[in-house]
Design goal:
Blueprint (H helix, E strand, L loop, with lengths): L1 E2 L2 E2 L2 E6 L6 E7 L5 E2 L2 E3 L6 H13 L1 E14 L7 E11 L7 E8 L11 H10 L4 E5 L4 H10 L1 H11 L7
Parallel strand pairs: 3-8, 7-10
Antiparallel strand pairs: 1-2, 3-6, 4-5, 4-9, 7-8
Length: 170
């Protein structure tokens, strides 16, 4: 999918509890951090179909798209052009997959510590912004990567390995 001559390669879904006090996060297997569900868009797949598929594969939930929150463009090679959708659960039960180690709703006031950028930004945008935005992913940068390396070297190494196609799923 293209937007302003940029090919959108990834989709992310924000799923709030019915009272909008909690957000659904998954803990990845390859890099054990908490993130919003989502992933890559397959060939000839729309971003809308991709987010429905990705959320189902990673959580076991069938969802509907409530709205497009925004389009986010990278400033470097650490991230992909991404569309963020707010979604609502229609059916299903939380089911772990080969990609997910855990699934949990977290209070917005008490998110886990291991959330990499730009996920906190995306959660904030999905919660507060009503019109679709078009932003650059400034929080995903080499300085942040270096600072993260000093705090969590193994997580950063696993992230860099995943960027070149080596996934460690345990």
């Amino acid at each position: 999918m293209k937007t302003n001559d940029t090919i959108i390669r990834s989709v992310i879904g924000a799923i709030f509890s019915p009272d909008r006090t909690k957000i659904l996060l998954i803990k990845r297997r390859d890099i054990p951090v908490w993130v919003l569900p989502g992933g890559g868009i397959e060939k000839d797949e729309s971003s809308e179909d991709a987010i429905l598929r990705e959320i189902f594969e990673e959580t076991g939930f069938t969802v509907k798209i409530k709205r497009l929150v925004g389009t986010y463009l990278p400033i470097n090679r650490l991230s992909n052009p991404t569309k963020l959708y707010e979604c609502t659960i229609l059916s299903g039960i939380a089911t772990l997959s080969s990609e997910t180690k855990d699934i949990c709703f977290f209070p917005l006031s008490n998110l886990p510590n291991l959330i990499p950028p730009p996920f906190k930004e995306w959660i904030h945008d999905a919660y507060t912004i009503q019109e679709p935005v078009h932003h650059y992913l400034k929080s995903v940068n080499y300085r942040t990567l270096l600072l993260s390396f000093f705090k969590h070297p193994l997580l950063v190494i696993r992230f860099l390995l995943s960027k070149v196609g080596i996934h460690i799923n345990n």
